[in-house]
Amino acid sequence: MKINNKIAKKRKEDFPIFRHNLGLVYLDNAATSQRPASVINAVKDFSEKDNANVGRGVYSLAERAMKKYNQARIIVADFIKAEPEEIIFTRNATESLNLLAYTLPSILPRNKNEILITEMEHHSNLVPWQQLAKRNNMKLKFVKITKDFMLDMNDFNSKLSDKTAIVSVAQVSNVLGTINDVKLITKLAKQKGAITIIDAAQSIQHLNINVKELECDFLAFSGHKVLGPSGIGVLFGRKELLEKLPPFNFGGGMISKITKENSEWANPPEKFEAGTQNIAEAIGLAESLSYLKKISLENIKEWENYLLKYALKRLKEVPDIKIYNPGEEKSVSLVSFNLLGIHPHDIAGLLNEKRIAIRAGHCCAMPLMEILKAKGGVCRASFSFYNTLEDIDILVDALKEIQKKFA
């Protein structure tokens, strides 16, 4: 069923947060999306009925826990068209990217010493590569953005070379909303023999992702941005590469044989999942993806595109506003902006008094803020399919009032 304003209002009923916070206008979905009751109940039901460690026991409770955990992996794999053994459960996208930053050097050719990322990266897809470059005496290069907030592909092509070892790019910018052509980026990078990594933290909840079509080597995302619990993330890796990589953590559950002197590793994904995992959260994540699948990402994308178009139109009515967004056809449903002469934190604080929740500040993208010349950061309103046109109207009316206060 296609989503319209009436159905979006109805969808809010699936999310208990709105029942417990009457009048809440939640516009910080890019940081953490809200959870439907089905996800909350999936975690609760496991804790009440099936709680046991996985891969440890032969009793019925442990077997049920293991079955649910394995099923969660299958559901996640299917959502991005991967194989279950290519799905590693982590704490979040940040940990997934750090796992790669610590393990990839073991398989990189010695003649490749450059890492290529972009100016629009979240700190989680910048700092790990920055530190890897320092540890291994590699060079970190940044692809520039254009004046209309798009990735400069001419600059990408000029910086991609035979020395490029790793190309790691966000599919969607968490500040600009810009959708990057990661399929093309992956294709070009592979022609140079580079390892390709996609940060899908801001795209998994908006776009259909097929890792086979993208042909990327790795892809990472977090559960809490896709209606799921916090503390659970995913790293997809091509099976042949996961088999080559060494483990990131060591301990129980990730070995096949151990003596006092040596250890032999289990096969992926267990090789990368040392210790007890966030079992209930993995099950909750699987439920969130199943919930999205029922609605369909096509329907979600259509409504969110409409919300973005409406938001851009309404925000332009606000005096002295600066909008950082490439436009409705090139962005997900996210708009960053500033009001002339007013600090983003002041705006967010005043909006909070009206029960409007937005993000304000550097949004974990300080180098990008320097490029945008946004010293105090930006205000960011990010929409989900349960947001309505009225949510945007309330935001715009409140911004106009704030502007008058500071006039």
Topology:
Blueprint: H1 5-11, H2 16-20, E1 25-26, H3 37-50, H4 60-79, E2 87-90, H5 93-103, E3 114-118, H6 127-135, E4 139-143, H7 153-159, E5 164-170, H8 182-191, E6 195-199, H9 211-214, E7 218-222, E8 233-237, H10 239-244, E9 255-258, E10 263-265, H11 279-295, H12 297-315, E11 321-324, E12 334-339, H13 344-352, E13 356-357, E14 359-361, H14 366-372, E15 378-382, H15 389-405
Parallel strand pairs: 1-13, 3-4, 3-5, 5-6, 6-7
Antiparallel strand pairs: 2-8, 7-8, 9-10, 11-12, 12-15, 14-15
Helix pairs in contact: 3-11, 4-11, 5-6, 12-15
What report would you give on this structure?
With 407 residues, the protein is of the alpha/beta class. It folds into two domains: 5-27 and 296-405, Aspartate Aminotransferase, domain 1; 40-293, Type I PLP-dependent aspartate aminotransferase-like (Major domain) (Aspartate Aminotransferase, domain 2). The chain has helices at residues 5-11, 16-20, 37-50, 60-79, 93-103, 127-135, 153-159, 182-191, 211-214, 239-244, 279-295, 297-315, 344-352, 366-372, 389-405, and strands at 25-26, 87-90, 114-118, 139-143, 164-170, 195-199, 218-222, 233-237, 255-258, 263-265, 321-324, 334-339, 356-357, 359-361, 378-382. The chain has a seven-stranded mixed beta sheet, sandwiched between helices. The protein has a four-stranded antiparallel beta sheet with strand order 11-12-15-14, covered by helices on one side. Helix 3 packs antiparallel against helix 11 and helix 4 crosses helix 11 (279-295). The longest helix is centred in the N-terminal third of the chain and has 20 residues, at 60-79. The mean pLDDT is 97.
